[in-house]
Amino acid sequence: FPSSSLLALGCTVKYSGYLGNWNKLFCSNGNSKYPRLMKLGKDITLWGLEIGLLSMTKGESALFILTPEYAYGQRGCPPSIPPNTTVLFKVEVLDFIDSEECDAFFELTCEQQDRLPLEKLLKVAATEREFGNYFFYKQHFKIAKDRYKRALSILRRRSSSKAEQSQINASKLLLFLNLSLTYLKLECADRALKYGELALELDQGSAKALFRCGQACLYMREYNKSRDFLARAQCIQPFNHDINNELKKLARSYKEYMEMEKEMCCQMFDRLNSYG
């Protein structure tokens, strides 16, 4: 059987299962644009398929012929799979993420977690952030947000060593920036601003944090605050297209807002004059 460490792998796989000589499809996720992340031994439990996947690398495709003892056994899986049936699987591995250390970390007590070496703590947080990135790029923003917050919970430790605290803060900065962007995607601009400002507390010169704050304020129609954040970001990165385009967007939005205000005032005065 695969080792317990290998069963901690999360993987994204495109698969199709067939009976006989590729003539009867009984399962597939080929129509899914974003196949979900599955864990070997939990979501993928077919013995032969587990062994086959663990022999593959990211981006590889393979065909597996699984005899009954490596597939559904003597009983089969009625009504789709008869007893003692050899099945065929066509698979493509899209991604692998090893969650073993994360799983082990969250089984520890708080006291045990606090005693772990910083290097291991940072590695676990980085893996959780990797999970968050995976779900973000699959546009599962709520799940991504939860994984980023889970990573932050790992980094709650404070260190008396400046060098160690600097490492912790560097990891936190990436997560604050990721959360700010994720909340923008979720259209929660106030939360996006909060995490952008937390990032600025760690790095006042972060153009990306200033940009995120500017985006959030523009979404909330806080035009002056948005202009301040974006102008500061532009000073740091004057040729950044995203920043410059956001400033143009701000100018257009503010112009439209002022024209709308002017029109409302005119309508109000027209109504007052009509009463006179």
TrEMBL record:
<dbReference type="GO" id="GO:0034587">
    <property type="term" value="P:piRNA processing"/>
</dbReference>
<keyword id="KW-0802">TPR repeat</keyword>
<keyword id="KW-0413">Isomerase</keyword>
<dbReference type="GO" id="GO:0003755">
    <property type="term" value="F:peptidyl-prolyl cis-trans isomerase activity"/>
</dbReference>
<keyword id="KW-0677">Repeat</keyword>
<feature type="domain" description="PPIase FKBP-type">
    <location>
        <begin position="8"/>
        <end position="97"/>
    </location>
</feature>
<dbReference type="GO" id="GO:0007283">
    <property type="term" value="P:spermatogenesis"/>
</dbReference>
<dbReference type="Pfam" id="PF00254">
    <property type="entry name" value="FKBP_C"/>
</dbReference>
<dbReference type="GO" id="GO:0005737">
    <property type="term" value="C:cytoplasm"/>
</dbReference>
<comment type="similarity">
    <text>Belongs to the FKBP6 family.</text>
</comment>
<dbReference type="InterPro" id="IPR042282">
    <property type="entry name" value="FKBP6/shu"/>
</dbReference>
<dbReference type="GO" id="GO:0051879">
    <property type="term" value="F:Hsp90 protein binding"/>
</dbReference>
<dbReference type="InterPro" id="IPR019734">
    <property type="entry name" value="TPR_rpt"/>
</dbReference>
<dbReference type="InterPro" id="IPR046357">
    <property type="entry name" value="PPIase_dom_sf"/>
</dbReference>
<protein>
    <recommendedName>
        <fullName>peptidylprolyl isomerase</fullName>
        <ecNumber>5.2.1.8</ecNumber>
    </recommendedName>
</protein>
<dbReference type="InterPro" id="IPR011990">
    <property type="entry name" value="TPR-like_helical_dom_sf"/>
</dbReference>
<keyword id="KW-0697">Rotamase</keyword>
<dbReference type="InterPro" id="IPR001179">
    <property type="entry name" value="PPIase_FKBP_dom"/>
</dbReference>
